[in-house]
Amino acid sequence: MNPRKNIMTSREKTGVVVLGAGVAGLALATFLRKSDVPCVVIERRDRAYIQVRQRAGVVDARNVQTFERWGLADRLLAGPIAQTIDYRVNGSGRVFEVVGDAGSEGRFCTQQMLVHNLLRELIDVMGGDVRFEVGDVKIENEASSSPKITYSDASGPHVIACDYIAGCDADHGVSRTSIPEGVLTTHTHDFGYAWLAALVEAPLIGHPIMAASDHGFVAQLPRGPQRSRYYLQCALGDGPDDWPDARIWEEIRRRLCDDTIENAVVHDKEFVPLRSVVHAPMQYRNLFLAGDAAHLVPPTGAKGMNLALYDVDALAHALVSALRDHDTAALAGYTDAVLPGVWKYQDFSVWMTDTKHDAGDPTLRGQFHQMSARARLDELFSSPVAARLHSDYQRGMA
Ligand code: PHB
To answer: Is residue 126 within 8 Å of 33, Cβ to Cβ?
Structure first.
């Protein structure tokens, strides 16, 4: 056991304060706790809220291996899945199967399932310290003193002194905004359209579908045995008033070229502008960013959760070296170590987004891009090399 663990003064002291109890923060805290590095997680929301956010459901092969190395794969993830996607163009589909070496498949685990399992592992099994419903979070990260986090909750104000802060509090959290102007460079790409994400009471038609059509993109992805989520390309700024349920079903039938699909209950509608963002460096003094606090990917490649896991694996190892072995080299090199991989996840997400949308509506980028995107999709079925590369990206192994 680490001697620091129970050090309590009039104010608290810990090794790492993790801001945010999403996948990034909880996975990081679980890895640290497994390594006997003391840490405290603080989260704005309550536990029930963070367990119900519905998101994509595959942990890619790279991150399955990460969980295996931490001895956690079988405790956190469901079984291996054959990753198949029906890539359609104007109703005509071909099923792409992600290929790879035996034993290096992705595993099924929705984001909310992973959050649920991480909370169980971290709090209920390992006795980790996760504090929900905290407000007024402030970061003190001066060069001259050790960092401090202040926050308040129902019991009053709190101060936690720490060695390091992990900013896992997503795009609108306080971590990144606490970094002074001029330190970060931000690279942004806006795709110029949005997705309407509709959770419906209808099971998957067949395989998961990603379909380009002359009328725009549509996807159908599984959400349990009875439900699925449709994603429909829509205009930036569209809202629920533009998309009554009847229009959603009409467009699904039109874009999938399938009149037999029947209307079903639409449980919720979310509108998501498609954009890619990278902030660098991913660190400032004793603060380290991971997951959506450092970068955003469009949902097309289902890589947001995987990229967060990729970051926190590296960050956990670096923090363990610093706090357990007093070697800060890996922390100093955190950004340089992970940024090339961040750009690979970005590149895959851009490829998926451009290819699937350009191959559809010709008014988007013109017929030239429509036809060249369709050629790129064809290659996945005509060239084993293209199929293997696409699979490697799907598996997070490129
Ligand atoms: C999803 O389940 O939301 C999902 C799955 C695969 C993708 C994109 C989204 O490529």
So the answer is: yes
Ligand 1 pocket, 93 CB below 6 A?
Answer: no
pLDDT tens for 159-211 read 999 999 999 999 999 999 999 999 999 999 999 999 999 999 999 999 999 99
Which of 54, 55, 58, 345 has the most ligand 1 atoms within 8 A of CB, as the residue to mutate?
58
In the predicted model, what is the mean pLDDT of residues 68-93?
94
Average pLDDT over residues 222-239: 94
Q: State the Cα angle at 350 between 344 and 310, rounded to 5°.
A: 35
Q: Is the pLDDT of residue 3 over 70?
A: no
The alpha carbon of 303 and the centre of ligand 1 are apart by a number of angstroms equal to 8
57: Cβ below 6 Å to ligand 1? Answer: yes
Ligand 1 close to Cβ of residue 308 (< 6 A): no
Place 54 in a pLDDT band, splitting at 50, 70 and 90.
low
Concatenated DSSP letters for 125-156? IT--EEE-S-EEEEEE--SSS--EEEEEETTE
**Ligand 1 centroid to residue 179 C-alpha, Å:** 32
Handedness of CA 245, 250, 256, 260 (dihedral sign): positive
Q: Which atom of ligand 1 is nearest to the CA of 55?
A: 3
304 lines ligand 1 (CB under 6 A): no
Q: Whose CA is nearest to atom 10 of ligand 1?
A: 301
- Nearest-CA residue for ligand 1 atom 2 is 56
pLDDT score of 224: 82
Q: State the average pLDDT for the chain.
A: 94
For 276, left (φ over 0), alpha (ψ -120 to 50), or beta?
Answer: beta
The answer, yes or no, to whether any atom of ligand 1 lies below 6 A from the CB of 56, is yes
Per-residue pLDDT for 330 more than 70?
yes
| CA 359 – CA 380 distance, rounded (Å) | 14
Confidence of residue 53 (pLDDT cuts 50, 70, 90): low
For the residues of 243-271, what is the DSSP string, one character each? --HHHHHHHHHHHHT-TTPPP--EEEEEE
Structure tokens at 384: 């084993």
